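S.,

Sequence below, as promised.
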Amino acid sequence: MPGTMGEQKGLKNRGYSAADMEERRAAAEEFTGASLDTIAKCGLDPETASKNIENMIGTVQIPLGYAGPVRISGGEANGEFLVPLATTEGALVASISRGMSVMNDGGGVRARVLSDAMTRAPVLRVDGIDHACRVMEWIDSNMDAIEAAVAETTSHGKLIRIDKYPAGRSLYLRCAYSTGDAMGMNMATIATEAVCRLIEKETGAVMVSVSGNMCSDKKPAAINMINGRGKTVVAEATIPKEVVEKRLHATSAAIAETNYRKNLLGSSLAGTLGANAHAANMVAALFIATGQDPAQVVGGSMAVTTCEDVDGDLYISVRMPTVEVGTVGGGTRLPCQREALQMIGCLGEGKARKLAEIVAATVLAGELSTLAAQAAGQLGAAHAALGR
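The prediction came back faster than expected:
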């Protein structure tokens, strides 16, 4: 059958009125033979999603719950928070809530954003190493002109640095930007294109792609583990010995050993990027609830969890080098996601770092609860009890 379904039915692919959506959904039902009655129960005005999706036919609902409250002492997040989580995985929210409650008994979570830079890494074609060196020298000598080119594309973003990686007739430039409270991927892409056009004009290098995969976006990458991308966050908590034994039914030594043998040694043998129990679970649920890009869960999965028995008490921390979040733009414009962000005081400008600290605290809670359940031999029983 030639053409797309939209072309066959004469629909406007980007129409966003309710009538457009209904007509498109009816065409989808006719084409597929499926009944879309539940998808049709759309809780938002289609026009509010005009910047988020094309060919809209309705919405898919995901159960939303909350974990907490969790007490956080951070650089930006301070106080107690009920954390919204959207998931279809039974036992997850209960496990995170348990971890938060136990950490509260130990005084809560301490969290800090250590660095904040979104990256885009174009690849340029050069004639060889001599040409690559001339291009790199030109960049170093003309940062004012490059920064001016960036400023013409955005009033919120600022170029922090350009790291250079020549490889044969390819030159990779890893451009790092501060992007305010936006996650910043679009901002970084547009600014980097402007930078590359200037470099092309002045040096004869040719931009092959604005993304040469050294960014590295939505893919697990060692460069992001080491240098960070988005926000690098560390969260920690100390749980007194008596709380560990009473609330988690394990010892600090047993939990620390489980973390070592499972997260650190097991992950090393498997060759994973990151060493954690299930950080992606918490990141995905919080990202979906608050309108973040779900594909950026890849970065959130590269967390490293550490545990130590300190004189009987349990010290636990998580380092997250790649927390790519925003509190303006993207999915944060959607009404349900805006309300979820309001629950944690993270809607709008000046809140992105706060959100990143809440992400790390939520991951820490999930890591604590799961490691304790495994150390106590309770993981299977907990899943069975909660219907998984």
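Residues 332 and 338 are 6 Å apart (CA to CA).

Coffee later?
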